[in-house]
Structure formats: structure tokens, C-alpha cells
């Protein structure tokens, strides 16, 4: 079973990206992913000897990276060495290798800079349809608390769906943020009417938020919701600081025509100033469930079903357990597994039905074993 099959890891060998590879390895271990390392050489080097030296050095470092991953027990494909504009080459390579995700460092910034995001990282986020995971300088991938802001759009639905699965895999806390933007007094004749408008706006916003959350499977998650009033970008940054968020997951939308490279103003402001690592999603999911249909043995099927249940894919888990029962209708763990899933789905009647079937088969197997032992003792 794969949820995040392939990660394209951009490595520029700079000090700011020292922990990019270690973060990629950690992510790959959590999701059993394959890593594809990539390095992009500049295309404006005139001296041939310098070009050759840069090429040889990059190949050596990429080989060292591949060896490191192998020693950590992580699968990797042949490293890519490309020449040209870094953001264009990385975005193109992600499509070519069919990566689920582009992972890279935030880039080097000077101390005291207002914006904490490098130019290359920002351009990749702007141009890529693939999800982009940006690792902050000197910040290890140690995810205890995820923040996912939502505005009820399709982009934020995608972000929350992926954030939920990541929270399950990392066993982390999840905060879902829905900021209510208030109306300014310039539109109304008095403060009294402004307050009434904003009170109603906030009530409707909370109702829409609750309705939005009903679409998601949050069972068993350690999650909370926050519905502050104010400027979305400022509230997002405030929650990150106040709750010590480790990972921000945000949906962003692409634009058509001349403005295709622009991001939403909220996303643009947040990713430039955010102090933690973050993941942006545009038109593709990071998490894509792929089941191995060739699995035939009960042990692996049972293990896959349990993992599906733990990841929140309840219907898929039931299907896997039922495949076990098609192979062997006396497979007790499958009955108990289905019962657990129905408990999580808040369906106690079906849970009890499958649990009862499992217990009956277990008792039958026990009595059969006792009868066999008695026959042996009697010598019959």
C-alpha cells in the first residue's frame, strides 16, 4: 500500500539545505516513499574546466546522497543532474518522474530579512501543479502539530484531506483554522450597523465551517478548530507562533492568462513570512492511495487492512478484510478488524454482528482443537 509513492528532492548542497535530505528521509520512512534526488547546475558558466569541475562535484555529492539513503533503508531512484534555471528544471522533472511531491529547502536569506523564503522556492510554488513541501532552514522534520487553514474552497478541501492523513501518519495534533474576515465601517453609516453586520457574518461563517468539516473523516484524530475574526494571513501567522506549529498545510489556486504565476494574496504573504516548514497544494494531492492488487497471503492483506484503518480509509479497510474472508472464511482477525472499523464509523450494530461472528468461529475452532486432543488421548 502506497500513500506517497515518490518524492522529488531538490538539493543545492548549500548550508541552508543541510537538513533537506534528512527531512526527506524521515518523510520517506513515514510513508514508505521512493526518493528522486535532483541538482540543477547553472547554464551560464563559460569556462569549460569550471563546468566540468562543477559537473563532477555534483555527481559525487549526488552519489553520496543516494548512498546515505540506502544506508537509512530508504529506496531512491537514479539522481537527476540538470542544467538551466533551477525552478524550471525542478518543476519539469517533477512531471517527468511523476512525483507526488517536490521537497526543497526554503533558500538562504540574510538575518533580519522580512521575507524568509528564497526566490527559487517561491517560483517553484508559483509554477508547479505538483504539491510543494518547503523545509525551513535548521528546522528538522519533527511533526507534532499541523495547522491547516481553510476558506471552504476546493483548494482548501484538498489541503485538509491531505492534512488529515498526514496527521494520522505522524500521530500529530491537527488545528483547523477558519478565519472570519469582518466588514469595515466604510460601507455603513454607523458603527452600530457595522457591528450587526459582522455579528451575522460571524454566525454564518461558523455554520459554514461546521458544515464544511462534516465532509471529512476526523474520527480518532487529536484535532481542534479555531474560528478567529480578522485578517487571514495575520491570524495564520499568529496561530503558528502561539501553538508552536511544526507544519503548515495550505491550499492555493493557480491563475489563468497573464496572472498564471500569481498566488492568492493570503498564501503569498504567509509563505514568505512563515517560520515553520510548510506544504502547498494546488491541483494535485500529496496523498494518493495505491493498493497492491497482487497480494494473496492473509498476513499481508491483514496488515494492509489495519494500516488503511489507522490512516482513516475505512471503506477500503473493510474491502481488504473481506478479501481475507474470501480466501479463508474462518480468518478470525478479519471479522474483528471489520468490527473495529464499524466502531470507528459509529455503526455499533454492524460492529457487534462481525464481532459475534468472529467469536463464534473462534469458539468453534477451540472446541475442534479440544476434540482432536481428546481423540489423541483415547488413542482413536
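Q: What amino acid sequence fits the structure above?
A:
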Amino acid at each position: 500500500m502506497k500513500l506517497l509513492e515518490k518524492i522529488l528532492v531538490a538539493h543545492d548542497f548549500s548550508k541552508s539545505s543541510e537538513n533537506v535530505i534528512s527531512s526527506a528521509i524521515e518523510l520517506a520512512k513515514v510513508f514508505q516513499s521512493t526518493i528522486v534526488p535532483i541538482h540543477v547546475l547553472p547554464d551560464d558558466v563559460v569556462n569549460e574546466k569550471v563546468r566540468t569541475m562543477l559537473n563532477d562535484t555534483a555527481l559525487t555529492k549526488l552519489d553520496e546522497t543516494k548512498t546515505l539513503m540506502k544506508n537509512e533503508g530508504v529506496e531512491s531512484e537514479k539522481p537527476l543532474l540538470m542544467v538551466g534555471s533551477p525552478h524550471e528544471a525542478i518543476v519539469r522533472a517533477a512531471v517527468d518522474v511523476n512525483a507526488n511531491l517536490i521537497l526543497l529547502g526554503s533558500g538562504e536569506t540574510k538575518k533580519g530579512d522580512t521575507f524568509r523564503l528564497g526566490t527559487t522556492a517561491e517560483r517553484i510554488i508559483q509554477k508547479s501543479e505538483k504539491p510543494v513541501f518547503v523545509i525551513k532552514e535548521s528546522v528538522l522534520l519533527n511533526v507534532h502539530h499541523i495547522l491547516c487553514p481553510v476558506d471552504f474552497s476546493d483548494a482548501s478541501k484538498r489541503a485538509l484531506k491531505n492534512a488529515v492523513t498526514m496527521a494520522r501518519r505522524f500521530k500529530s495534533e491537527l488545528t483547523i483554522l477558519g478565519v472570519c474576515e469582518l466588514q469595515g465601517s466604510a460601507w455603513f453609516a454607523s458603527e452600530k450597523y457595522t457591528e450587526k453586520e459582522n455579528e451575522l457574518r460571524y454566525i454564518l461563517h461558523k455554520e459554514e465551517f461546521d458544515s464544511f468539516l462534516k465532509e471529512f473523516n476526523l474520527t480518532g484524530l487529536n484535532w481542534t478548530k479555531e474560528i478567529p475574526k480578522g485578517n487571514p494571513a495575520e491570524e495564520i501567522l499568529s496561530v503558528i507562533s502561539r501553538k508552536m506549529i511544526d507544519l503548515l498545510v495550505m491550499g492555493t489556486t493557480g491563475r489563468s492568462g497573464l496572472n498564471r504565476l500569481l498566488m492568492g494574496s493570503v498564501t503569498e504573504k504567509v509563505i514568505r513570512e512563515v517560520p515553520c516548514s510548510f506544504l502547498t497544494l494546488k491541483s494535485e494531492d500529496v496523498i494518493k492511495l495505491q493498493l497492491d492488487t497482487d497480494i494473496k497471503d492473509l498476513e499481508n492483506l491483514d496488515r494492509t487492512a489495519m494500516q488503511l484503518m489507522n490512516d482513516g480509509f475505512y471503506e477500503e479497510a473493510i474491502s481488504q478484510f473481506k478479501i481475507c474472508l474470501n480466501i479463508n472464511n474462518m480468518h478470525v482477525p478479519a471479522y474483528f478488524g471489520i468490527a473495529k472499523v464499524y466502531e470507528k464509523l459509529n455503526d455499533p450494530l454492524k460492529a457487534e454482528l462481525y464481532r459475534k461472528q468472529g467469536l463464534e468461529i473462534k469458539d468453534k475452532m477451540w472446541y475442534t482443537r479440544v476434540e482432536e486432543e481428546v481423540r489423541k488421548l483415547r488413542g482413536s
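Q: And what stands out in the fold?
A: The two ends are 48 Å apart (CA to CA).
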